[in-house]
From TrEMBL, chain A:
GO terms for molecular function: acyl-CoA dehydrogenase activity. GO terms for biological process: bioluminescence. The lineage of its organism: Bacteria, Pseudomonadati, Pseudomonadota, Gammaproteobacteria, Chromatiales. It comes from Elongatibacter sediminis. Keywords: NADP. It comes from the Bacteria. Pfam families: LuxC. This is Acyl-CoA reductase.
TrEMBL record, chain B:
One of its GO terms (biological process) is bioluminescence. This is Acyl-protein synthetase LuxE domain-containing protein. Residues 27-349 form the Acyl-protein synthetase LuxE domain. InterPro entries: ANL_N_sf, LuxE. One of its GO terms (molecular function) is long-chain fatty acid--protein ligase activity. It comes from Elongatibacter sediminis. Coiled coil: none annotated.
């Protein structure tokens, strides 16, 4: 593969990005796979997960990875790339990328693979040792189903997925031989990996333990918003770092929080039509009793799909995979109650662009403030780190 | 105090009306004395049938310290489950009054299955396990429930968690002194420490022809992973022993301490007349008459905490009809645990 120069117009002026392929063709190859994916769902994935992957592979979404990192494509009046445009910056790939993915990691695994493939660099994936590994499964699926072309050739020759234990020598190799380290896992696991010997000019990113919540104003909580809340929550429940663990009704009353909870309980069976697994149904019964004992007002949805509790913001929390708490709070109480490791704050507010919200959140560790429907949207910036652009190093150019 | 606890007739004719009356009374008693329980079932007045009695999910005992405070109730020790699946142990507050009833209950049940002949009890555990102050493990509690049937007790393991630490010399000494022995161990420990162990020749010779009644509990999960079938398990333990040797597998939960469910000769389990079993649909909680579902266990004994009626995470099936073993009343099959699946998330759970 020969290098290709892609031109963009960033806020700092024109930039050139060095890639080992034409990025348009790689995006087109992913789009081709997307069409095949619509035919059937592999057994390793749920229908929701597969549908999300198909949506994620939308060419516009993949193109946005470049545009959000480097600016709009630099084209002439006819819309063609301008190959000879001057550049103030040249971005070159740093080199090999190593990704550590533990066993139970969600769709973030395949999503990371897809975005990193757009850098064209060698990628080594360290997978968990259990069979249900979505990233490895997706890589196999892509290599098997993609037609011959640049993407298939790249995935076959430059991307490897390996499974090994913590003490394996490859753990060291991954760190020593990579220009970029991306670690999913616990804080301790990430620290241990970044402490391994690595090139001094390499960069490391940790996507560690995070929590998210939803802020929904009483006036904004129509059925469409609450349906979105159910869909966003139901994919992973509390296990997802981007799933809401709590719904805050800012500036609301306890009655408004309760009525929102009641409406979600009514809508749940219309939105989630399948039975939960037996152990989830059982753990929801446990959670409902645990919550009641702690003083929460609790409802279990039909066929025990979820536990929805409302109560005072200072009640002791309870933990369960499919339990969602609704609390009314002043804005100050809501901010004070944010967990230290807050990641995404999904909003459905009357006017989220109100500068008051930004002023309020500026002093918090919140990393994403996005509409409810975008809570799970993975992108080139994650956990507040522009890891995708950092897969490139910058060369400054002045004439 | 339960009027149903008749130590001589644990499986005699059932008095369902009295059982319901005692369960209603016990429920009201716990509601009076346990605030957490009151929060969970604030509206309870009384139930017209067993299925309408309020229950607690067994997992709740891992999350909350449930205790009933009442006149004459002295909480003494805490019974801890083995916590092998979740890593979190259930903690049951034991009180003197209930312990007496529970000991009488267990003894009555065990006597019905292993007889009341006094003989040495050999426990596949370490004596050190007795020394945890204020706490007692499920394994020790199960072993000590056999104490009234024992002429003496010996702990066979040097290290409670190491099956290779069996004191063969002590076993050999007991074999030379007695023709009949009672042996208790957790199922997996009995297999690893005894059945699958390299038994020294002298011990093997001493075992030959002895009458041993093995009693085990704790479930088959570890042995299923090793593909050990119950028939093979039993045959391996008894092959060189006297023909009257036997193996009794019992099912029990720390959340139902005092009630155990040995497997009868026909392959079923029976609650004594002071206990009962329901099976519920996991998604609707509807009581099931013969289909598999979640087991709900209840008994009339506990006073120190509201563990008298619990929904378990074990699967079972009621079996209609009379049992050929001769025990009357409800019988059920234990099918296994509610299947767990890995929770998929962001690697942070």
């Amino acid at each position: 593969m020969s290098d290709s120069l892609a031109r963009f117009h960033s806020t700092n002026g024109p930039v050139t990005v060095v890639l080992p392929f034409e990025y348009h063709s790689i995006i087109a190859d992913w789009a081709a796979l997307r069409r095949l994916m619509a035919r059937s769902v592999p057994s390793a994935f749920t229908r929701d997960e597969w549908a999300y992957l198909i949506t994620f592979l939308d060419p516009e979404n993949l193109l946005s990875t470049f545009t959000e990192s480097f600016g709009a494509p630099l084209t002439d009046a006819d819309g063609h790339d301008e190959p000879d445009a001057p550049s103030h910056w040249i971005y070159r790939p740093r080199g090999a990328i190593a990704v550590w993915l533990p066993n139970n990691v969600s769709l973030l695994g395949p999503l990371t693979l897809i975005l990193l493939s757009l850098t064209g660099q060698r990628i080594r994936l360290k997978l968990g040792s259990l069979a249900e590994d979505l990233c490895g499964e997706f890589l196999k699926y892509a290599v098997t189903h993609l037609p011959d072309g640049a993407l298939r050739g790249y995935l076959e020759s430059r991307v490897t997925a390996e499974t090994f234990e913590r003490g394996d020598r490859r753990q060291l190799e991954f760190a020593e031989e990579s220009a970029v380290r991306i670690v999913f896992g616990s804080d301790d696991a990430a620290s241990a990996i970044h402490a391994l010997p690595h090139p001094v000019d390499s960069v490391g990113f940790s996507f560690a333990d995070r929590r998210s919540e939803a802020w929904i104003a009483h006036d904004a909580a129509d059925d469409a918003i609450l349906t979105t809340l159910i869909k966003v929550f139901a994919i992973y429940g509390q296990a997802g770092c981007t799933s809401p663990r709590r719904v805050v009704v800012p500036d609301g009353t306890p009655e408004q929080a309760r009525s929102m909870r009641d409406r979600v309980a009514e809508l749940w069976p219309q939105v989630i039509r399948h039975d939960p697994p037996m152990h989830v149904a059982s753990s929801n019964l446990l959670a409902s009793q645990w919550a009641l004992a702690l003083g929460w007002d609790t409802r279990v949805t039909e066929r025990h799909g979820a536990v929805l509790a409302c109560g005072s913001i200072d009640l002791e929390a309870f933990d369960s995979p499919m339990a969602l708490r609704f609390v009314a709070a002043s804005r100050e109480q809501a901010v004070a109650g944010l967990p230290d490791n807050i990641q995404t704050l999904g909003h459905a507010l009357t006017d989220p662009t109100d500068s008051e919200w930004l002023r309020l959140l500026a002093g918090t560790p919140v990393l994403r403030f996005v509409p409810l429907a975008r809570m799970h949207h993975f992108g080139a910036v994650w956990d507040g780190q522009d890891y995708w652009r950092q897969c490139f190093s910058a060369m400054e150019v002045h004439s | 105090m339960s009027q149903l606890l008749d130590e001589r007739r644990p499986y005699g004719p059932r008095d369902n009306a009295e059982f319901l009356r005692e369960m209603n009374e016990l429920t009201r008693y716990h509601l009076d004395g346990c605030a957490h329980y009151r929060h969970i079932c604030p509206m309870f007045q009384g139930a017209d049938d067993r299925a309408s009695l309020p229950w607690l999910h067994v997992g709740l005992f891992k999350q909350i310290n449930l205790r009933t405070e009442a006149e004459g109730i002295h909480h003494e020790r805490t019974l801890k489950s083995s916590a092998t699946s979740s890593g979190v142990a259930s903690r049951i507050a034991l009180d003197r009054t209930s312990s007496q009833l529970q000991s009488a209950s267990t003894l009555a049940i065990l006597r019905d299955f292993v007889g009341d002949q006094m003989r040495p009890l050999l426990v596949l555990d370490s004596a050190k396990s007795l020394r945890a102050r204020g706490e007692v493990s499920a394994r020790i509690a199960a072993a000590l429930s056999l104490r009234p049937l024992a002429s003496e007790i010996q702990f066979l393991l040097e290290d409670a968690d190491n099956p290779a630490s069996l004191k063969w010399d002590l076993l050999e000494e007991k074999l030379h002194g007695h023709d009949s022995l009672l042996v208790y161990g957790f199922t997996w420990m009995l297999w690893l420490a005894w059945a699958a162990a390299e038994i020294p020749t002298s011990v093997r010779q001493a075992l030959s022809g002895k009458r041993i009644h093995f009693v085990h509990s704790g479930g088959w999960k570890k042995l299923e992973a090793m593909q050990i079938e119950p028939e093979h398990f039993n045959d391996t333990l008894t092959s060189t022993l006297h023909a009257e040797s036997a193996v009794t597998d019992f099912y029990g939960l720390v959340e139902q301490v005092g009630i155990i469910f040995p497997l009868c000769a026909s392959g079923y389990r029976h609650p004594p007349v002071w206990a009962d079993v329901l099976v519920r649909d996991p998604w609707t909680l509807a009581p099931l008459t013969s289909e598999p579902g979640q087991l709900q266990l209840m008994n009339t004994l506990p006073r120190g905490a509201p563990y008298h009626n619990v929904l378990t995470e074990d699967l079972g099936r009621l079996v209609p009809g009379e049992c050929a073993c001769g025990r009357s009343g409800t019988r059920f099959e234990l099918i296994g645990r509610v299947p767990k699946a890995e929770i998929r998330g962001c690697a942070n759970v």
